[in-house]
Amino acid sequence: MKKRESISDEEWQELTEAALEAAKKAYAPYSKFQVGAALLTEAGTIVPGCNVENASYGLTLCAERTAVASAVVQGNQEFRACVVVTHTSPPSSPCGMCRQVLHEFAPHLPVRMVNPQGEMLQTRIDTLLPQSFDKKQLFNALKADEESQQP
Fold it and tell me: What pTM value is reported for the model?
């Protein structure tokens, strides 16, 4: 499948609306920090996600990661864009864990951070996560290990 580079204004708007709706469904009884996310897949599907908190905070799932997991379950592993909605001013960016997960699937993913008041920031995941850890490091380590095992 040929990858499309630019995201249309209409696609950004649809992603934003999906992320806004997802934020309303967030399960955030402890922090009250509702987050919604929406991914645009290479196939053109919009996959929403919301944060799901847990009394054991470390088990909390962020909106971006629930969107990624939902997309993968649906057979989508290539993403064109992501919108993250928070109720902060300025809009909040994805946390470090979410940056790493998004980078795994789309190292140059355009990301928009928005809030219901219409504020918007846009960047790319590789800007948010410079010098990331990725599969290249794992493959290089495996290759080096294999080479060191040879007589």
Answer: 0.90
